[in-house]
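User: Could you write out the 3D structure of this protein bound to zinc ion? I've included everything you need below.
Assistant: Certainly. Input first, then the structure.
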Amino acid sequence: MKMKMHKCKKCNIYTIQDKCPKCGGNLNVIYPPKYSIEDKYGKYRRKLKEESKMEVKHAKK
Ligand SMILES: [Zn+2]
């Protein structure tokens, strides 16, 4: 299922409708973030952290 979110700049509200339920004005389309990509970066960041920790340990010796 594909969900398209809209946001009304005027009312500052989010809706899945084509028009703002409050003022009936135009809406900006909001694309949901891709969590899979963020998770990939998170794993990469965690790996970097572990490696930098090891480097610190090594430097102390
Ligand atoms: Zn509105």
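Residues 8, 10-11, 20, 22-23, 25 surround zinc ion (CB under 6 Å).
User: Perfect, thank you.
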